[in-house]
Design goal:
The structure is a homodimer of 407-residue chains.
Chain A: E1 9-13, H1 18-28, E2 32-38, H2 57-62, E3 67-71, H3 76-86, E4 95-98, H4 108-112, E5 119-124, H5 134-140, H6 143-146, H7 162-183, E6 189-194, H8 195-205, H9 208-215, E7 230-235, E8 241-246, H10 249-259, H11 262-272, H12 280-285, H13 287-299, H14 303-313, E9 316-319, H15 323-326, H16 330-334, E10 339-343, E11 349-353, H17 377-383, H18 389-397, E12 401-402
Parallel strand pairs in A: 1-2, 1-4, 2-3, 4-5, 5-6
Antiparallel strand pairs in A: 3-12, 7-8, 8-9, 10-11
Chain lengths: 407, 407
């Protein structure tokens, strides 16, 4: 937790990964983020992985440091409460993050009628409003056909929901950017972030589309070969797979040095009349000549021999480790100051991270757990909407709202 | 282009994907982003894909809408100019994005001595300063061993640099968040965003680490099966692979309806004593029972029969298409208003996108191309650093700076 955004109040009506990570990033930088959900939980409330008791480890990971309000979104009164929350007054409020449909009861038009300077960031599937999720957008962009071993034609989906994650972080950026404009007197606005557009723009930003426009076909599937440079997984004498990478001249020369391949590579360079040091693309073009040299060099040494030599020599490399091994890796998890052992709404205690960035001069506050569903219903209805305890009791009785006990 | 951040001046000293996308997102939301590079280009200036003439389509994709200054970063005077640019005065300046080493000539300590309220966002590999790139961080997190067909044990790297992209967008967010704090009188700060921490935190945010802590092992490799719900690629009668997804009850019921599987699935439910509609996890647990039904349903219909029925029925699905097919897809590229045909520094004209989000009430300004390397050297030295034409000429003569002709 840092407090850069202290004082901001963001309301989140969301599910799954993109919009919830947007809220998470804002919350862990100090904003008050109030998530509302249907009583009993939204469509992501039971997403796997689950604890033995059936609580979602996914939900409690994605909603850390937020407040939770539970509403009956099937009722007119519950929907009105959601609208009022999203548009509640206050200079540092009027910030709403959602993936609810653009034309539903949380449309910008409906909300703007309640608060003229509302900033609404809306995650969408396809830009035209039709359904799309990370998996189906990804399949449309060509990537699963470019991923995986060259000797296998089956499409390979990514396991990491990259489009959701990029969209979530980009939405956090656009929300704060729109707030800056509003602070300068330029009013509120809706910002729509469809996964389809984030995907299409990114494929262009990285040069994939220009490459395909020029060549007439998409990049070939090539296993773990790093496109346009030198990199791949290699296997050590004891069967460990290491990822080696050499894009810059320095990365290349250090890899050759530690592997003792300088002379052999110079011979290949002489034969071909090229210099691999000055042009990483040539290393890619001629990788079939280079790979056997590296394969032999790796096969002659154990991982225990190679990896300290790589580190000492400044080589860019990585081990393929399992996540259970990674959890014992001091740099990633075990001694990582981002992580703190906390108790979660599932009742389980385990290490969880705060803000993903580090501000050396600021104090990193405690990691805050996700709320129990409905934990802050009464507090928020009172503080943000100014409802009396009598009104709140009536809403509970009418089953329009619920607290942490589900009623 | 939108102008939410109009008036801000951001200096970028960067290479590869993460820090450049941070600058790109800021520029396409209206900030003036000035990128400095070594004369002749930094380590990413010739990254593939290349045009036939050898210009990087990657570089010109990632640096759209920025200004370019070329400096001899090997000389003391060039390094001093870089420091002065990063810390140039102005209320809306003092914003620096970089992936230069934390302890080098662009360290926060050195820069802060020149501007006390500097905001510096620094992309790093590993948090301890050691080398790491997207590929090597990814291999350390376990994902390549979870990716790809279950019948193949080889690690599968992702083709999309997901960690770089997430880091870039998150950095854009933290930069504006830090600026907001500075506007409230809280001074400047350094924000460090190591790929290793972004990766570790994300694996925790999504529940991967809690799952592994509980089970003692990482998620099994399972091809394209969607973990904890129903989803996979299926093959139509004419051999087309479609991704089908059903997480919510509605997605599930619509898929059954269009595929005509209601009765068969009800039989399985009866046998097992479960309800698949209300618990997506059960669809995953019993997927071996469900897959044959879906495989037969797909195998009995062509893609041309199925896909309009899916759309009409509100099913969540996606085709596995190649990127060349995607370029003809109206929704992604062909008629996407994000894209505009512009001339790039390579001399080529092709469609490129502006800001990834859409603001319906604002006018989407023209997409702006990347600069030529050094195109704005003189303009920036004059406008930002206040150098006279005589001083600028001297710097050219001394080869400390260069314009677009490389001198």
């Amino acid at each position: 937790m840092y407090d850069l955004l202290k004082g901001l109040r963001v309301v989140e009506g969301s599910a799954f990964v993109a919009a919830p990570t947007c809220g998470l990033y804002l919350a862990q930088m100090g904003a008050e983020v109030i998530r509302f959900d249907n009583i009993g939980g939204g469509p992501d409330f039971r997403r796997w992985p689950l604890s033995e008791a059936g609580d979602s480890l996914y939900w409690e990971g994605l909603n850390k440091a937020k407040k939770s309000v539970a509403l009956d979104l099937g009722s007119a009164e519950g929907r009105e409460l959601a609208q009022r929350l999203a548009t509640a007054p206050g200079e540092d409020g009027g910030l709403f993050v959602t993936n609810f449909p653009a034309d539903g009861f949380l449309s910008y038009e409906k909300l703007r009628a309640l608060r003229d300077d509302l900033i609404c960031v809306r995650v969408m599937g396809w830009a035209d409003g039709s359904q799309g999720m990370d998996y189906t957008i990804n399949s449309a962009l060509g990537l699963p056909l470019m991923t995986g071993p060259a000797d296998d034609a089956r499409p390979v989906n990514h396991v990491l929901a990259a489009w959701d994650l990029l969209t979530g972080a980009y939405c956090a950026f656009t929300l704060v950017a729109a707030l800056m404009a509003r602070m300068k007197g330029r009013g509120g606005r809706e910002i729509r972030a469809p996964l389809s557009d984030i995907g299409a723009a990114t494929m262009a930003n990285l040069g994939f589309t220009a490459e395909t426009l020029l060549s007439g076909q998409q990049r070939a599937r090539m296993g773990n070969d790093v496109f346009g440079a030198f990199g791949r997984d290699f296997t050590t004498k004891d069967g460990v797979k290491l990822m080696l990478l050499a894009i810059t001249p320095k990365q290349w020369s250090k890899a050759l040095e530690v592997l003792g391949l300088g002379a052999e590579v110079a011979t290949v360079e002489g034969e071909l009349g090229v210099s691999f040091a000055s042009d990483e693309g040539l290393r890619f073009t001629h990788r079939a000549r280079l790979y056997p040299l590296f394969e032999r060099a790796f096969a002659g040494r154990t991982a225990a021999e190679l990896t300290p030599a790589f580190d000492a020599g400044g080589v860019t490399w990585g081990a393929y480790q399992t996540l259970e091994a990674a959890l014992d890796d001091a740099r990633l998890f075990k001694d990582n100051p981002l992580f703190q052992n906390i108790r979660h709404p599932s009742g389980l205690s385990y290490a969880a991270p705060g803000a993903m960035a580090t501000i050396p001069q600021d104090i990193r506050g405690d990691v805050r757990p996700a709320p129990k569903l409905g934990q802050h219903t009464d507090e928020v209805l009172s503080d943000v909407l100014g409802l009396s305890s009598g009104e709140i009791a009536r809403l509970h009785d009418a089953k329009v709202v619920a607290g942490p006990e589900g009623r």
